[in-house]
Amino acid sequence: MSDDRSHLPAILWVLLSTFIWALIFAAAKFADGRIGVFQITFLRYLGAFVVLLVFLSRQGGPRANISQQPGVHFARALCGCGAAVAITWASPNMPLVDATAIGMAFGVLTMLLGAVFLKEVVSAAYWRAVVIALSGVALIMVSKGAFQSKFSFLPALVAFVSALLFAIEGLLIALLGRAEKAYTVMLYVTFFGFCLMTLPAIFGWQALPWQAFVLCILLGPAGLVAQYCTIRGYRSAPLSVVAPVDYSWLVFSALIGIVFFNEWPSAMTLLGCSAILMGGVLLVRLRRATQG
Question: pTM score, two decimals?
Answer without folding.
Answer: 0.77
